[in-house]
Design goal:
The chain is an alpha+beta fold and 178 residues long. It has one domain. The chain contains one helix and eight strands, in the order H-E-E-E-E-E-E-E-E. It has a three-stranded antiparallel β-sheet, with no helix packed on it. The chain has a three-stranded antiparallel β-sheet with strand order 6-7-8, with helices on one face. Strands 4-5 form a two-stranded antiparallel sheet. A hairpin with a 2-residue loop joins strand 1 and strand 2. The longest helix is centred in the first third of the chain and has 51 residues.
Length: 178
């Protein structure tokens, strides 16, 4: 009896070609996914700074003379009973205690990346009280048109990244370098 050897199968070359194509497509997809994560974190940073700015405006509305909180070491010195304690990123932004506490943010946002941090600087006006502020962050997306070179402000807990994005109060028009 004669056997039928007419089976069609893929050759080794065809299999290697398919594997190579799948590898190229998955690599492209992986880098596109990483890029979208970068843009997502940057978008969150911009939104966080915008929300912090609104809380700072509320703080200034409550303060005598419309003063913003003092900045020290990149932190907002506006928490605690007297409103002079450093606020911790990731904790509530509130001043006072008990029922008379003014809560400006339930949680003061912190940078979505573990090794980056936000940085706050108050700007003193003519009366010697903070009349403006600058909020700094590090944007990871090198193609972002809002990135700027801001020398001297460190937005990394390891000291390797300088801030490249600033959100400022409305009364500070030029983007200053600290």
């Amino acid at each position: 009896m004669k056997q039928n050897n007419n089976h069609k199968a893929f050759t080794l070359i065809e299999l290697l070609l398919v594997i190579a194509i799948l590898g190229i497509l998955s690599t492209i997809g992986f880098f596109a996914f990483q890029r979208s994560q970068l843009r997502g974190r940057d978008s969150r940073r911009k939104n966080d700074l915008s929300q912090i700015a609104k809380a700072l405006e509320m703080y200034a509305n409550d303060a005598v003379g419309g003063a913003f909180p003092v900045g020290s070491g990149g932190k907002i010195m506006g928490c605690g009973t007297a409103g002079t304690t450093a606020c911790t990123w990731g904790q509530p932004f509130s001043k006072g205690s008990g029922n008379s506490a003014a809560v400006y943010m339930q949680v003061l946002p912190k940078d979505p990346a573990a090794d980056f941090q936000y940085y706050y600087v108050s700007k003193t006006g003519t009366l010697g009280v903070p009349s403006g502020y600058l909020l700094y962050a590090y944007l990871e997306n090198t193609d972002d048109p809002l990135r700027t070179d801001i020398a001297g402000t460190n937005c990394s807990s390891t000291g390797t990244r300088l801030c490249n994005y600033v959100h400022r109060s409305a009364n500070i028009t030029p983007i200053p370098t600290p």
